[in-house]
Each structure stands twice: as structure tokens, then as C-alpha cells.
Amino acid sequence: MSTLILALTAGAVIGLALGALGGGGSVLAxxxxxxxxxxxxxxxxxxxxxxxxxxxxxAMVAHARDGNVRWRTGLLFAAAGIGPAxxxxxxAGRIPAAVLTxxxxxxxxxxxLRMLRSRPAAEGTVTVRPVRVAAAGGxxxxxxGVLGVGGGFLAxxxxVSVLGLRMRNAVGTSLLVIxxxxxxxxxxxxxxxxxxxxxxxGPFVGAAIxxxxxxxxxxxxxxxxxLQRIFALVLLxxxxxxxxxxxx
Length: 248
Description:
Order of helices and strands: HHHHHHHHHHH
Distance between the termini: 27 Å
Strand content: under 5%
Largest sheet: none
Helix content: over 70%
Structural class: mainly alpha
Number of helices: 11
Shape: globular
């Protein structure tokens, strides 16, 4: 299968995940870029941030139109993660690739298990506590910077389980958080962006953006609990695969 077809297929799947689930894009993009498209780990994490940032903006606009973005909570959450994301991005280059891969897998697996155990909050139970929002946002930002991911696979569980948002609101709000965190992490990787293979990244982004719109339509038709389970199971499968690859 040609590189272009692989890029288009992977982009469509990742866009679908971001649009429907509010996350999972980068956790799927990084292994796709490395194992399917032959990117190095450094190039893959940088390309992933570019892809997820552009796709998240597109998906966020669609969710915002339906009132599913909690702007105050999302901006506070994201603002708390900007500094840690930039610091983590600066430190990432000093960490061995195998350690980064293993850490990525462990964090993704933990988030998946938490999502499987928790239930979406009932409507009207949301309580925004600035201290909790800031703590969760700061931790997410650090992980985003170090692992080169947008953080949606952690933002959604945090917004649902820690802050009490309903699944649909968590999906929309996480896209705002992903966009801000990814831009902050990219700011520390500016020197590596120019060296990306744009003949692959460009089609990948285009397919992901189109997939995000389809994902948004899917999120309207499928229950929040079902979306939560799908999201968690995908995360768990990717985490197991990457952990095995890092260890062997």
C-alpha cells in the first residue's frame, strides 16, 4: 500500500476519533506515523502535534455550534497546562525513545482503565472548582509536552471523572484544551517542524479534518456511555501494543 494511501487512511481514522471522542487522535497518530509511515519518534511526535492541532480546531468549531464547549472550564484547564507543556517539550529530547514509548503506553492504559470504571455525570451535576481544574490542567500539560500528544485521551477522563462534566460536554471542551496544549508544546519544537515530510503530513491533515466532521455527526447519534467505552477500549489496545513494543 502506498504511503499516500496509508496517510489518508490513518488521517481519516484519527479525525473520526477526535470528532467523535474529543481525544485519541494523537495517541493513534504517533504509532501510525512511526509504524506505518516510517517517521522517527521525534518527527512523529512533532507531526502528531501539528495534525492534532489543526484537526482539533475544526472539530471544536463543530462542537461549539451545538453548545458542547464549556469555555470557562476549558480555558482555565488549558491555561494551567501551558507552562508545564512547554517545560515538558523542552525535556522530551533528553529522554530515551524506549522510555518515552513505555511512559506513553502506561499513561494511556491508566486513563483507559479509569474511563471504563467511571460513569458519565448526570446533567446538572457540574461543579467547577478552580483549584482542581488548575491541578488537572497542569498535569495534563506536562504529559502533553513530554509525550508529544494533544492530551485528549487524558483530558476527557479528567473532565468527566474529576470535574463532573457530561461526556458530550467533555468531548467538546477537551478539543479546546488539546488545541492550546498542542500549540504550547509546538512552540518548544519549532526547529523540528520545518524538517517534516509535508508530502505525507499534508494529506494526513486533510483526511483528519474531513474525518473530524464525520466524527462529530457520529457523536450525536451514539450515547455518551457508548462513546466512553469505545474510547477506553481503543486506548487500552494501543497502550498494550506500545508497551510490548517498548519492552521487547
